[in-house]
Amino acid sequence: MIAIIDYDAGNLKSVQKALDALGQENVVTKNRDEILKSDKVILPGVGAFEDAMKHLGALKLDEVVKEVCAMNKPLLGICLGMQLLFESSEESPGVEGLGILKGKILRIPGGEGLKVPHMGWNSLRLKNNGRLFEGLSPESYVYFVHSYYLKAEDESIVTAETDYGVNIHASVESGNIFACQFHPEKSSSVGAKILRNFAGV
Fold first, then answer.
1. Taking the model in full, what pTM does it have?
2. Model confidence over 93-125: pLDDT tens digits?
3. What CATH number belongs to 2-199?
4. How do strand 75-78 and strand 88-89 relate by DSSP bridges?
5. Positions marked active-site
6. Label partner for 74 (CA 20 to 30 A): which of 113, 122, 174, 179?
């Protein structure tokens, strides 16, 4: 069973639909016991960093995510869900993230011909033998929608990068914590393979 954490931050139905298509049993839930009982957990999310942290805190789901990590249960953060795993974001100065991983969430600088938010398909550069990317070609394309990006403190946890006016750490893995800035649930067959790989860890 894969628990999809519902903290009123959107993007739940598309993740659930993608898991349903793979035949993966799943539940969308705010319930602590249901989350902790599950085999794996997904923290999705779209929207603002500060709002998301407020919702997590109000529902005490920030504590639950930390419990999941302490149990070494596989956890996948997607898009905003990835950013929340880190310490802070330029989007919301003074607001603490979950602080489970170390790194900075920075605003995409943009530039000539580069619109922010970054919306669309970009190719990945795979590195450090990420388990999410087993069986995928080295320059697979995935779908992004974001205005902020990760610069991880420890580059050894970075499993995929992309470029959009700046080098973006697009995916990380640390123990049983997985995260990706892009949307696997919107990334066609490549995304389906990534979710299948997560279901199999």
1. 0.96
2. 999 999 999 999 999 997 778 899 999 999 999
3. 3.40.50.880
4. unpaired
5. 79, 183, 185
6. 122
